[in-house]
Amino acid sequence: MSAILVVDDYIVQQRVLRQVLTTAGYEVTVAGDGAEALDYLAEADYALAILDIAMPGMDGIEVLKRIRADSRLYDLPVIMLTASGEDSDKAAARSAGANVFLSKPASSHEIVSTVEGLIGSPA
Amino acid sequence: MNRSAQVEINQDLRRLRLMIDSLPTPTLIEDENRALVCVNQAFCDMFQIVASPDDLIGADCAQAAEYAKPLFSEPETFIAGINWALASRQPIKGEVIPLKDGRVLERRYMPLYLDGTYQGHFWQYEDITERHVMARELEASRDRAWESSRLKSEFLAMMSHEIRTPMNGVIGMAELLLSTNLDETQRDYATMIYEESNALLRILNDILDFSRIEAGKVVLDPVPYSVYELCAHIAEIARRQAERKGLAFHVVLPPGIPVLFGDGGRLRQIVINLITNAIKFTKKGSVSLIVEAETAADQQILLRIHVRDTGVGIEPEKIPALFEPFIQGDSSTTRQHGGTGLGLAIVKRLVTLLNGEIDVTSEPGHGSTFTVSVTMDRSSDSSSAFATSSKAVQWSAPLPKATDSSKRILVVEDNAANRQLTMDYLHMLGYHNLQFAEDGEEAVELVQAANEHPFALILMDIQLLRVDGLTATRMIRTSEAESNRHTPIVALTAHAMAEDRRACLAAGMDDVLVKPVQRASLLKVLTTYVSLHNGG
């Protein structure tokens, strides 16, 4: 199963990630904010989530914390993807339990190879 | 005493009083019993005393001070100050005393001794209100300037961050556009959009970095990191940049540098900035990265990182200004070489942040060498975390981590730096039981000798001297056929083509890792093969 949940409030970024990952052969679902992301995660199984940090409402760090606190989702591989180079974001992502921290812009190659490293090539 | 002597003494006393009265500074002299000897008009004016100076002679100074108390902002402190001076009999200078009406005075005290005998006290009060107010204003305006500069830095940081979001969108879309079917002209235009938006983003990043450092927002993020990994990533980027300009890029790296604990990400940024700069100002020849390491104190390593180029060089008189923002060696070069002129200013500030130093030696026309010296701690627990990698920071979050680090892994690799890098990775992932072979023949011998305790995994480079990786794998598989054993062998190869992969699998390998190896993929290989196969 190679379904990936992309969580980003910026539509252009959603489209880029969807296209890059679909081309690489993954199945992609997009959530526009944190609450929607948690809904999706509750409804279906995903192999990996890519979270933006700065989002209106519930931010990516909070989503990640809830994932790690959920007995069904705690071991979900998570990539934090953010435009901010802030050290505090990096540290927050780390302590919340992100697997990888990527800063934007990440090239399509970088995104795909990071995903492959975590969950392997698409099944 | 005869009459003429008495007259003379009176003359002297009057002369003395006249002298003190003509002093512009309010002055008072009292004797050892606190009786007033002499006071001037300026003193009477300052404290709004109606009596004339002559009428005050003989007055009790202690009582006078009590009368004067209401004039002072802190009356008790004023009296305490006098008492302390009288008791200590030490000269006092520059004691600042505020008055209720807003004036600020400075008190001076001197004990009077004649031929070693204590004779009384000398007081002076000076109105320093103007000086005081001016100093206060200066301080306030300095604070305001600092605050406004900090606010501007914060504003810049915020704005450049805001601009980055749509910029990332443009870059992402341009990359997608380039992956579609385009004719030559369209491809040309799309490539330009892609490259120019990346250039713009680099400028934004410089501004963002600089303003964040200036606003005091950069915090160090110390993690265990491998100097070999750091240099491998730097070399990957530097080589691409250098090749584009037809320059050679060299790395000189000594063996045996332990895993360190510090902000490797910032160190990497410093070195890349220096290398980018070196490449920018070098037309022909080469750029080199030379690392030296020595043990500084207990558990500390002094790294000396040199970036040497064969470029235009820097005039000696321009070196001091080099690390100031918005200045390039020659301002006419801004247009020629591009860039914000912030690169070296950022480097300097980051080096300072790491408690390090940066030096430049240069000969115009022959090139320059930038040297960064930093002291870093040895990592006490290299297996506890991952190091910073190129852009991805990865750490040992819930991903399944190696469960049994006692399993022995054979690394077959002829390049010393790559060997060290693979070793650092494995150490960081918790595998310490490692063995190394430099070529295929040695690998085969080791595998056959390890009959009793076979390896849990073999990481095999393909291009090796004498016996290559593919041949070595075939030899190992043949010898294993007799004992019905299968040691997982994973190829490490710089060739990512599908046919290379097929060749590896055909030779009997289980998997292929493409160099430069990423930790995530190495971890995956380890969890897949080392956990599943219980090969001791």
CATH superfamily of the largest domain in chain B: Histidine kinase-like ATPase, C-terminal domain
How many individual β-strands of chain B? Answer: 18
The total of helices of chain B stands at 15
* Helical content of chain B (DSSP H or I, runs of 4+): 40-55%
Topology of this protein?
The complex is a heterodimer of chains A (123) and B (536).
Chain A: E1 3-7, H1 11-23, E2 27-31, H2 34-43, E3 48-52, H3 60-69, E4 78-82, H4 87-96, E5 100-103, H5 108-119
Parallel strand pairs in A: 1-2, 1-3, 3-4, 4-5
Helix pairs in contact in A: 2-3, 3-4
Chain B: H1 3-21, E1 27-31, E2 36-39, H2 41-46, H3 61-68, H4 75-88, E3 92-98, E4 104-114, E5 117-127, H5 129-178, H6 184-214, E6 223-225, H7 227-244, E7 248-252, E8 260-262, H8 264-280, E9 286-295, E10 300-309, H9 333-337, H10 343-353, E11 357-363, E12 367-378, E13 393-394, E14 409-412, H11 416-428, E15 434-437, H12 440-449, E16 457-461, H13 469-483, E17 489-493, H14 498-506, E18 511-514, H15 519-532
Parallel strand pairs in B: 7-9, 14-15, 14-16, 16-17, 17-18
Antiparallel strand pairs in B: 1-2, 1-5, 3-4, 4-5, 6-8, 8-12, 9-10, 10-12, 11-12
Structure write-up:
The complex is a heterodimer of chains A (123) and B (536). By secondary structure, chain A is α/β, with parallel strands linked by helices. Chain A is 45% helix and 20% strand. Chain A is built from 5 helices and 5 strands. The longest helix of chain A is centred in the first third of the chain and has 13 residues, at 11-23. Chain A is globular, with a radius of gyration of 13 Å. Chain A starts with a strand and ends with a helix. The model of chain A has no long low-confidence stretch (mean pLDDT 88). Chain B folds into 4 domains: 3-127, Beta-Lactamase, CATH 3.30.450.20; 146-214, Signal transduction histidine kinase, dimerisation/phosphotransfer (DHp) domain (Helix Hairpins, Orthogonal Bundle); 223-378, 2-Layer Sandwich (Heat Shock Protein 90); 409-532, Rossmann fold (3-Layer(aba) Sandwich), CATH 3.40.50.2300. Chain B contains 15 helices and 18 strands. Chain B has helices at residues 3-21, 41-46, 61-68, 75-88, 129-178, 184-214, 227-244, 264-280, 333-337, 343-353, 416-428, 440-449, 469-483, 498-506, 519-532, and strands at 27-31, 36-39, 92-98, 104-114, 117-127, 223-225, 248-252, 260-262, 286-295, 300-309, 357-363, 367-378, 393-394, 409-412, 434-437, 457-461, 489-493, 511-514. In chain B, the strands form 3 sheets. In chain B, strands 6, 7, 8, 9, 10, 11 and 12 form a 7-stranded mixed beta sheet that branches. A 5-stranded antiparallel beta sheet of chain B has the order 2-1-5-4-3, sandwiched between helices. In chain B, strand 3 and strand 4 form a beta hairpin. In chain B, helix 7 (227-244) crosses helix 11, helix 8 (264-280) packs antiparallel against helix 10 and helix 12 (440-449) packs parallel to helix 13. The model of chain B is unreliable at 382-403 (pLDDT under 50). Strand 5 (100-103) of chain A pairs antiparallel with strand 13 of chain B.
